[in-house]
Specification:
198 residues; globular
């Protein structure tokens, strides 16, 4: 069945499209990969070009995760008991594309928004609770990375509480690990009190 590998490849290629770079060019702003924090994610676009650019980047990156997951869920139904595992693999490919984009020498973002898009598609109640956690952490700390790290740590817990799928739980663990690894420098700055605040 060619649908699964084709979807996985398409998900990776879609994930590799840098929403932040597209938004920066639309706003005639600097390349986010070389300005601000050097990350093409929503937080850096927010700092560089304002809340509208940050929101558009967030939406674009989230859609890169949600769309492949939703398409895979519908198109891979014939796989039966292997459906959830295959959908999880397609979703993971989208996040890997964002973090390691083929178009930019495998140097991409940190995966937060794209992973959120995946969770919103596959376990919406878990995603809703993570939004609450993110907003509460952001209001308390005024630091984007602190809120992201809190959600990354709680991601497997949220998916485990609101989904019965073992495959989705494993996916949540993998995505959590990827996000935490990508935020290791942010964590070091947080511990030093040097992470920028809003």
């Amino acid at each position: 069945m060619l649908t699964f590998p084709a979807l996985a490849l398409a998900a990776y290629l879609l994930g590799s499209v840098p929403a932040g770079l597209v938004v920066a060019r639309l706003f005639h702003g600097p390349d986010p990969r070389t300005a601000g924090s050097g990350n093409p994610g929503a937080a850096n676009l927010f700092r560089l070009l304002g809340p509208r650019a940050g929101a558009l980047t967030l939406a674009g990156d989230a859609l890169k995760g949600a769309l492949p997951a939703l398409l895979a869920w519908h198109w891979l139904a014939p796989l039966g008991p292997w459906r959830e595992a295959a959908v999880s693999a397609v979703a993971a490919a989208a996040v890997l594309g964002h973090i390691y984009p083929v178009y930019f020498k495998f140097q991409g973002g940190k995966g937060v928004a794209t992973a959120f898009g995946v969770v919103a598609a596959l376990a919406p109640w878990a995603a809703l609770n993570l939004v609450v956690v993110y907003l509460a952490a952001l209001a308390q700390t005024r630091v984007f990375s602190a809120a992201a790290l809190m959600c990354a740590w709680l991601l497997p817990v949220a998916v485990g509480l609101f989904s019965d799928s073992k495959a989705f739980l494993l996916l949540a663990g993998v995505l959590s690990g990827l996000i935490l690894v990508r935020h290791r420098e942010n964590l070091e700055r947080l511990l030093q009190g040097a992470e920028p605040r809003i």
